């Protein structure tokens, strides 16, 4: 069985506008995947849509309800994956918890702009921002790049891409653009308690993708503390050594094993299907 249990569409701000669910399902069919999960950030709207639309016209395999949930614990942001939940109840909960994409991204953008001013970095607020499609961190990151006066900032903090900026600003309290993301994200406990209450499973997403900004042992300890159901072992950002360690940890602690491409239509994740796993994928237990 060929799985890909971590896929985003343009219902997520981090995906490309062209990355529609129709395109994703068509690609999955072309790749001859057997089972997928669309895991958009903080919403399961696709799975709501799929209840009234015949998705089998695009993809003949199994589609598992999924969602990627932003969480903030002790001032540090990371992600959880939720699977096999009650879609209607989860859609209502996610809307109440995360509000709309526009409201949360606008709030984030405004907080980052305030920090730029406070720390005397140059930003151009005349640049248009559309919270329905724009990512707050991306807007400010690209804005900062426009001014030569900000060059020393990127050098000082060794920021080479948007991901560097995002991870530092959501994990490192000494960073000038740090935001305690509990202003928009719930705690781990809130997500776990709800997903479990509607019959779902909660998985720790890509533990090694946080670029050493979060200690791996602390993260795995949190997974046990809050009774997460499993770990995303297979992910493009994980090395073979990291996969082996996570697989051993999961088996030792009776945790489920998940894996996915993190496809979002962008070049860094431009192919559906899991590449760092055997063809039959017997290890995946979601």
Q: Quickly count the domains.
A: 2
- What is the structural class? alpha/beta
The CATH fourth-level homologous superfamily of the largest domain: Metal-dependent hydrolases
Q: Give the strand tally.
A: 8
CATH T-level fold name of the largest domain: TIM Barrel
Order of helices and strands: EHEHEEEHHHHHHEHEHE
Span of the ends, CA to CA? 12 Å
- Please, how many helices? 10
Q: Tell me the name of the CATH class of the largest domain.
A: Alpha Beta
Describe, in plain words, how this protein is organized in 3D.
The relative contact order is 0.16. The protein has ten helices and eight strands. Helix 1 links the parallel strand 1 (3-7) and strand 2. 36% of the residues lie in helices and 14% in strands. Helix 4 packs parallel to helix 5. The mean pLDDT is 92. It folds into two domains: 3-99 and 184-269, TIM Barrel; 101-182, no CATH class. By secondary structure, the protein is an alpha/beta fold. The chain has helices at residues 21-30, 45-49, 87-98, 101-118, 136-145, 151-156, 162-171, 188-197, 216-225, 240-252, and strands at residues 3-7, 35-38, 62-63, 66-73, 76-83, 201-204, 230-234, 256-259. The strands form two sheets. Strands 4-5-6-7-8 form a five-stranded mixed beta sheet. Strands 1-2-3 form a three-stranded parallel beta sheet, with helices on one face.
């Amino acid at each position: 069985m060929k799985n890909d249990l971590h896929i985003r569409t343009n219902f997520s701000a981090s995906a490309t506008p062209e990355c529609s669910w129709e395109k994703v399902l068509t690609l999955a069919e072309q790749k001859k995947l057997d089972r997928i999960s669309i895991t958009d950030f903080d919403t399961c709207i696709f799975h709501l849509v799929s209840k009234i639309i015949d998705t089998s016209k695009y993809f003949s395999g199994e589609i598992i309800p999924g969602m990627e949930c932003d969480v903030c614990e002790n001032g540090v942001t990371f992600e959880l994956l939720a699977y096999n939940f009650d879609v209607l109840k989860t859609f209502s909960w996610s809307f109440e918890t995360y509000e709309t994409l526009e409201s949360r991204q606008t709030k984030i953008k405004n907080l980052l702009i305030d920090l730029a001013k406070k720390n005397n970095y140059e930003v151009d607020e005349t640049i248009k921002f559309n919270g329905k499609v724009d990512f707050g961190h991306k807007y400010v990151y690209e804005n900062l790049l426009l001014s030569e006066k900000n060059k020393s900032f990127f050098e000082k903090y060794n920021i080479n891409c948007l991901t560097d900026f995002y991870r530092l600003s959501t994990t490192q309290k000494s960073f000038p653009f740090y935001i305690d993301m509990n202003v928009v994200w719930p705690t781990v406990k809130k997500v776990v308690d709800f997903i479990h209450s509607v019959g779902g499973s909660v998985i720790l997403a890509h533990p090694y993708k946080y670029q050493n900004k979060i200690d791996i042992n602390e993260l795995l300890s949190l997974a046990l503390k809050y009774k997460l159901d499993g770990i995303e072992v297979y992910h493009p950002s994980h090395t073979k050594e990291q996969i082996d360690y996570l697989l051993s940890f999961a088996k030792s602690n009776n945790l489920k094993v998940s894996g996915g491409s993190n496809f979002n239509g962008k070049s860094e994740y431009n192919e559906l299907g899991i590449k760092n796993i055997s063809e039959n994928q017997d290890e995946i237990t979601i």
